[in-house]
Amino acid sequence: MRSVECPDCQGRMRWKNLEEHRKSECDGRPVQCEVCKGTTTYGKRQVHKDHECPEREVLCPNAADDKIRCVWTGPAKDLEKHMEQCKSKAEFQEMTARFAASAAPKSPAAPKPKQLAPTPVVPPRPKAKPAPAKAAPPPAKTENAWPLQQEEEAKAFAARWGLEWCLVKVKLEGLSPPQRELIMERFQCPPGHVPGGKFVKYMDSCVENGWKYVQSYSEWLADREEKLRAKALAEARAAETKAKAAAKVAPARPEASVTPSKSFKAALAAPTAPGPAPALPREAPLVEKWESLAEAERSEVSKKPPPPGPPGPSWLSGPGPTPVPKVTWAEILGNQGEL
């Protein structure tokens, strides 16, 4: 019988059994992973499932660490992303523990053991005159201190981004004030990222790549003092303006300075004679209630005469025209003779 070689596993067999072998017996036949839907061989399916499948469930390598004890569990494809966050968390815990240890009060020294044997009596020696104490030099002004309210700004920076103050202080206290201000101005944390890990990575990248465009301490100090001076001046001006606005009231009304004369006082004191009673107005017909002239003519109110009242002004009661002087014909003719 003719024998052939399997192209998948290189095994030899009869040619009539080759098709059945490749379907059900060959270890090199391709199979599909049920988890990730990837392709592998039948003989390596268990190795792929345990070590190569990207969808297999794995534990964090830091789960066995007594300091971290990470309990993360997820697919293998997300392990690398998780390790970055887990590393930042481990660094943060280490810094927190170191900061807490440095801030903890030191325990008092153990008391010295009591001396059981009697102390020998030694005659006192004459004390030498102590040398005059020198004045202690003033403390040197380090450039890594927190000058001009920068520590309050760092606390506000930590609160704005949701960072632990101890982490921010540990990371920034080793830098100069210009470098701290540059970090607080340029740091950004996109939504969905861990602020603590992002801040640690940003600080590490700045230290590794070097600092660029950073002012010297003297230039930064001069600019800082100028900014604080301008801010204080603006606040003082605002307070002064507010005080002026609050103190501004309406001017008092001036009192009358005119003294009434004696004649005016006498006129006020003199009794006034009673005058005629004021005339009552005539009752006008209710024209607004009539809808037409015919209705007004038929109304009883329009047929009544108006009530008597004081007469109004008339041209008949006024002064008459100037009388014309009488001239005779003799006077007229005499005047013509003279002309």
UniProtKB/TrEMBL annotation:
The keyword Iron does not apply. Residues 285-303 have a biased composition (Basic and acidic residues). Residues 99-145, 244-327 are annotated as: Disordered. Keywords: Receptor. It comes from the Eukaryota. InterPro entries: Znf_RING/FYVE/PHD. Residues 100-119, 244-256 have a biased composition (Low complexity). Residues 304-313 have a biased composition (Pro residues). This is TNF receptor-associated factor. It comes from Cladocopium goreaui. The lineage of its organism: Eukaryota, Sar, Alveolata, Dinophyceae, Suessiales.
